[in-house]
Amino acid sequence: MITNDGGSRMGPSRGSSVKALLIAAVAILTLLVGASISGAATGKKSAVDPTLDWAIATNPPSLFSAFYFGTEGSMMFSLTTHHILQPGVFGQPTTGPEAAVSSWKAVTPTKYVYRVKPGIRFSDGTTLTAADVAFSLNVHRNKKTGSKMFSFFSNVRSVGAKGNTVTVLLFKPDSKWQFTPAASPALVYSKADYAKKGAAFGTPSGLPVGTGPYKWVEYAPNSRVVLERNTFWKGVKYPWDRIVFSLIPDANARLLAVQSGQIDGTFAIPGNDIPLWVKAPNMKFGSFNSGGWRGFSIDVEDGPFKDVNVRRAIAYSLDKASITEGLTSSRGQVLEGLPPLLFIRGLLPKAEVDAALKKVPTYPYSVDKAKAELAKSAYPKGFSTTLNVPNGCVPCLLLAQVLQQGTSKIGINVKLNMMPGPQRFQVILDHKPNLGLQVLGQGPDSPHPMDKPDLLYRSERAAPGFENSANYKNAQVDKWIDESLASSDLKVAARNALKIMTVVNRDVPYIPIFSIPGAFAVKPGWGFKSSLGPFYYNQMWLSHLVAK
Amino acid sequence: MLPESPPQEATPAEGAAERKRRRWLARYVARRLLILIPLVFLVSVAAFTLTHAAPGGPIATLLENAPTSPEQIEAIKEKYKLGDPLPVQYWDWISGVAQGDFGRSILTNETVLNEITSRLWVTLSLNIAGIALAILVGVPLGVLAALRRGRFLDRALVTISVFFMSTPVFALGLFALYLFGFRAGLFPLFGPGEGLVDRIHHLALPAIVLGLAGMGFTMRLTRAAMLEQFDMDYVAFARARGLGSFHVTSRYAFRNALIPVTTAAGLLFTGLLTGSVLVETVFGLPGLGTLLVSAVTGGDFTMVQGLLLFIAAWIILVNIAVDVLYVFIDPRVEFDKARG
Questions:
Q1: What secondary structure letter does DSSP report for A198?
Q2: Most buried residue, A226, A417, B54, B127, by most Cβ within 10 Å?
C-alpha cells in the first residue's frame, strides 16, 4: 500500500532493517566505550606510588623564569633550581641548604657581595660557578631578554663575578634588594647550557639544566610538566622519584581529580570556590595567608573621584566583613590598609603596632555615613561611572558586583565593563582612557614593608607604564618610602609603613578589602607539617608535605 | 534511476563521458586549490590587522602580575619589533610564513609551527572520532526516526537530538566527567595519556561528548532529508512497482538524502573545532582549542595569526572535500556546475 506520509507504514521487511540499524548504532557505542574501558586503569594510585601527581591551573608558558612569572611557575622552579638565597617562611633571606650562596653581605648600602657554595652541580654534572650566578642575573637585566623580572633589576648598576664571589652594585640604596635573591624564582642558570640552547631555552626542545633536587624531563605545554630526581643533588632526598604537574584548567574537573585520587594535591583553588572545596569529601583542605590583597583603586584625578568625600563615601558603602566572609569563606582577613599587617607585625612590638593602628582612619560599613560623606561632596545626588572588570577573574567580578550593589544604595550607579584581562591591564599601564575605579588583586613580591607602598603610592609611578592606578601623589609619602628604602633597618620601613597607612587611608586612593587566602587540597591523610607562608612557592614546599 | 538493469560494458560514448567527467573533476579541484592562495592571503591580512588592532596586546600579557616600568615596556616593544610600522611588521611576518617560518610564540618562545603540529593530533583525533560517532550513530537514528515518523520512537529520538543539540558542550562534558569519570571510574579525568591504548582511553570520553553534540544535529538533518525524499514521486513510484522498503530506503531515498548529510558532515568538521575548544578545556587536553584560547587571552599575536591561517586553510580544504564528495554522491552536480 502506498501512502503519502513518507513511508511511515512500512511492511514487515522494514522492521528487520530498523532492527539492523539500531543494532549497528548500539554496537558502535559499545565498541567505543568498550575500547575505552579495556585501556589502562583509570588512574587510582597505589598507596606507595613514587610519583607525586600535582594539579596546576594555568598553562606553563615556558620553563625559563624570564617568561614564567607566577606562583605555579615558582613552585616548580623551587624544585629544580637553587635560589641565590633561601627564603624563610616570610621570604626573609637565609643561607640554608637550598641557597646557592654560603654567605652574603651589604658592604655598603649600594654594594652586595655573595659567596657561592662549592660543589653544587647542575643536572648535567657541571659545577655551578659564581660566573653562572652573575650571568643569570644579567640575563634578566638584559633588555633583549624581555624578562618579566626586569623591573626587579632596574636599580642594579652592575653584576660581576670574581672567583667564587658575585658582586651586585646598585645605583642608589634600596633595602628591598636584599630580598630579591630570595624572593625571585629561578635566578640560577648554567651559562653554558643557556648558550647551547639559545632561543629554544625553556621550550620543550630546550629543557634547562638546574641544580635542585629534581630535573626537568618533560614539558608538554597545555598538558603537563614532569620532573625526576637530579642524581647530582646532595641535599635531602624527598620520597618521590617523579613529580608530574598536570594542567587541569577547569576548577570543577580539578576538584573531581583530587577527590578521585587521580591527583595527590593542588594549590590551585579559586578563592570564590573555597566553600565548595571545604565541604568536598575524600580530600583534605587547608588554607593560609598568602599575603596578597584584593580591593579597588580610585583615580584621584578623575571626575567625581577627585573629591575625597566621594572616595570616603564609597569606602563606607562597602561591608568588608560580609564581603570577606562571602568571597573567601572567612579564610581571608579584612584589610584596613596596605601593606598587609603580616609584613609589619613581625618587625615591631605588638603594642607599638596596635597604638599606631589606632591613628589609622577606617571606614566601617555604614550607609548613613556613606550618604553623609556624599552629601558633603560636589555630587550629593550621586553619579554614574564605569568599572572595568577583567573577565577571566571571577573574584574580581564578584567584588565588582558587591561594589555595584553597595554604591547603588547611596546613588552612585556603577556600570560593569567586562574586558579581557590583558586589555584591562593595558588601561592601567596606559593610564587612559580613564582609570576611574579599578578592581585589583595582587600577591606580594617581597616581604619588605614598602613592597606595595613603593609600587602603588609613589608619585613618580602615577604615570603611564606604572601601576599607581589611583594617580596618587603625596610628597610626604614619597619621603617616607625613600627613607625606608635607604635604611637597612627594616623597623624604619615598618614604622613608616604605618605612618603611610594613616595618610593614605585619610585620602582613600585605594580601598583594600581582604587578604587573599592561599589554599591547598591533598589526599585524605596528607597534609603540610607546618603552616605555609605567603612565599610557600619559593620554598622547598615538598619538605613540608606529609604523605601517607 | 529506474528501472534497474544488469551491468553492461561501457559504450565508447560512455567512456568518453567518463574521461570528460574525470578531467572536469581534476580541473575543478585544481581551481578550488588555486583559490586557496588568495583566500589564505586575505585571511592573513585580516588576521594580522585584527590581532594588532585589538586592544591589550602582548605587553599587558607579558607584564601582568609583575611590577612594571616604562623602560621594561620599551624593551618588550623593541624585542618584538612592535614599534615598526604595521606594513613592515606584516611583511616581516608573511615573508617568513612563505618560507615556512610562522615565527615564535610570544608567550612560550617556541616556534608557532611546532606548537601547532604538536597539538594537532589531539584535536584531529577528537574531531575524527567525534564526527565518526555523529555520523555513524546520528545518520542511522535519523533514518530510523524518519521511518517511524510521528510515532513514539520518532518523538523519543527527536527529543534526544534536541537535548544534545541544545546542551552546551562544556556542560555535557562536565556531566560526563562526573558520571563516567568520577562516579563510575570508567575514564580518566584529565590529560591526553601516554601510549596508544592509554591515549584512546583518555580521548574516548571527550570524543563521545563531542560526538554526541554533533550527533543531535546529524540526526535531525538526516530525518528531515529522509522525510523530504519519502514525499517524492519517485519513492511512491518505486513502492508502486513493488520494491521492498529496505531497497527503497537504502538505495533510493537514503542516497538522495546524502547531499545535505554530507554538507552537515562538512559543517561538523569545522563546527566541532569550536566545540573542541570547550571539551579540551574541561578535559585538560593539549589541543589546538586550548592553544587558541591561551593565545587569544594571552595576546600572543604571532600564535593567533598562525592558528587563524591554519584554521582558515582547514575550513577551505574541508569545503573542497565536501564539494568533491557531492560529485561522487550525485553525478548531476557535475553537469549543473559545468553549465554554470
A1: G
A2: B127
Per-residue pLDDT, A103? 94
CB atoms closer than 10 angstroms to residue B75? 18
Question: B187 contacts in A (CB within 8 Å)?
Answer: 36, 42
Does B295 touch chain A if contact means CB atoms closer than 8 Å? no
Q: Could you read off the pLDDT of A217-242 as tens digits, one per residue?
A: 999 888 899 999 999 998 889 999 99
CA A548 vs. chain centroid, Å, equals 29
| ipTM of predicted assembly, 2 dp | 0.71
Grid cell locating A281: 569529601
Give contacts of B 185-244 with A, CB under 8 A: 185-193, 195, 197-198, 200-201, 204-205, 207-208, 226-227, 230-231, 235-236, 239-240, 244
Q: What is the pLDDT of residue A41?
A: 38
Rg (CA), chain A: 27
pLDDT tens track for A3-12: 333 333 333 3
- Residue A244's DSSP bridge partners are A53, A226
A443 contacts A290 by C-beta, under 8 angstroms: yes
Residues of B in contact with A252 (CB under 8 A): 174, 177
Instruction: Give the list of residues 6+ apart from residue B81 with CB closer than 8 angstroms, or none.
Output: B89, B92
Q: Would an 8 Å CB–CB cutoff place A109 in contact with chain B?
A: no
Spatial distance between the Cα atoms of A499 and A478, rounded to a whole number of angstroms: 12
CA distance A501 to B22: 82
Mean pLDDT by 10 residues, chain B (340 residues): 50 76 81 83 86 72 72 79 85 88 83 89 88 90 91 92 89 90 88 86 91 89 90 86 83 82 78 78 87 82 88 84 78 53
Inter-chain residue contact B65 with A205, CB threshold 8 Å: no
Give Cβ neighbours of residue A227 (< 8 Å, ≥ 6 apart): A76, A79, A80, A214, A215, A216, A217, A242, A243, A244, A245
Residue A447: closest CA among A100, A88, A76, A105: A88
Q: Residue B270 and residue B93: Cα distance in Å, rounded?
A: 26
Q: Are A208 and A63 in contact (CB under 8 A)?
A: yes
Q: Are A17 and B246 a contacting pair at CB < 8 A?
A: yes
Check B109 against A62: CB less than 8 A apart: yes
Strands (E), B61-163: none
Q: Is the peptide bond before B3 cis (omega within 30 degrees of 0)?
A: yes
State how far residue B277 is from chain A, nearest Cα, in angstroms.
12
Chain B neighbors of A67, CB-CB under 8 A:
62, 107-109
Q: Given this model, what pLDDT does residue A16 score?
A: 44
Can you tell me which residue has the cell 571606614? A363
Q: Which of chain A's residues have a Cβ under 8 Å away from the Cβ of B231?
A: 4, 6
**Closest approach of chain B CAs to the CA of A418, in angstroms?**
13
Higher pLDDT, B8 or A201: A201
Report how far residue B183's alpha carbon sits from residue B8's, in angstroms, rounded to the nearest whole number: 60
Between CA B328 and CA A471 the distance in angstroms is 68
Cell reading at B46: 585580516
Angle between the N-to-C axes of helices A320-328 and A394-408, in degrees from 0 to 180, rounded to the nearest 10? 150
Q: Determine the residue among A250, A263, A424, A456 to mutate to test chain B binding: the one whose Cβ has the most chain B Cβ atoms within 10 Å.
A: A250
Of A151, A223, A443, the CB nearest to B191: A223
CB pairs < 8 Å spanning A and B = 279
Cell for A512? 583594600
> Which of A39, A202, A223 is nearest residue B192 as measured by Cβ atoms?
A223
Which of residues 11 through 50 in chain B touch A, CB cutoff 8 A?
none
- Residues A175-179, mean pLDDT to the nearest whole number: 91
Count CA within 13 A, CB hemisphere, residue A189: 25
Shortest CA distance from A245: residue in chain B: B191
C-alpha cell at B193: 595519556
